[in-house]
Amino acid sequence: MTGLLEAIQLASSVVVPIPTGLPDLSSSSTSSPTSSSHHGGHSTHSCGGSSSSTGSTSFPTPTVVPVHPVYQEAGASGHRTLWIVFVLMLISTIIFAALAYRVPVQKRLFHIITTLIVLFATVSYFAMATGDGFSYALGTSRKSHDHGPDTVRHVYREVYWARYVDWSLTTPLLLLDLALLAGLSGANIIVIIVADLIMILTGLFAAYGQDNSQKWGYYTIACIAFLFIIYLLAVSGRREASARDSKTAAFYKSIAVYTVVIWTAYPIIWAVGDGARHISVDGEIIAYAILDILAKPVFGLWLLMTHERLPASNLHIDGAWANGFGKREGTLRLGDDEDA
Length: 340
Description:
By secondary structure, the chain is an alpha/beta fold. It contains 9 helices and 6 strands, in the order αββββααββαααααα.
């Protein structure tokens, strides 16, 4: 028994040497020295959690690449044009106001309306010329590439909302001139002015449309309203004017056709300008400036000069219009004729 215990103690005291030079079995067969490094006992792996045997990392190819935004703004020629038109509108306002004082108050209705048209245009062009009355409308331009991702560019374009404010005030007055010249009924006058306001406001909404469906949808509504205005001028207006004397009827036909032709150019300029953005802001300003001069000062001067030579076209308004509401004549009285 004693000999057996001595044998066990001798076996436990023997140290078996461990051979060196064996491979590290703790390393994974899919890892490499370049895929991880030890810093303070921590391992840092490449992005994505895996790497190829050459140490390169693969990223997903983007489908859209944004580029720097573009700003479409008025240049020197555009600002110069705005100032020129402002001066012309101001001169027209002074001339038309002077012509109004040459006639009695009873016959001043056409003069007052026409003077207000160029006055509103004067204020509008002053606002645009001094750098007010506009804001940027955002548009997106996307370009496809055969061997790469699409590129998207944000385009910010100057839209002069002061121009739409001008049109919402001046175009109803222009139509009122034509309606009074033709002798349209009060109901038709209200309808044609409402159609005009719908046309202008939907044009403004279209200019700030965020996508094509919205933009061209509003544009379509505006064009429909414009066609209705043309119908009222060409059918109802011509019918009423032909019931008057031949000279007044002929003059109405001429100036109405002139107005329709000039106004038809506006939606065309809008379509290639604020709509499709195929022309620059300067080109748009110059085009609208020419149309505004033809549609307002030239129209007004033609109307007033011819109107003076056509006695049948004169509107003689007496009563409160000429004498004021404080006078007995023309005063609106309600319930004071007890003996009647």
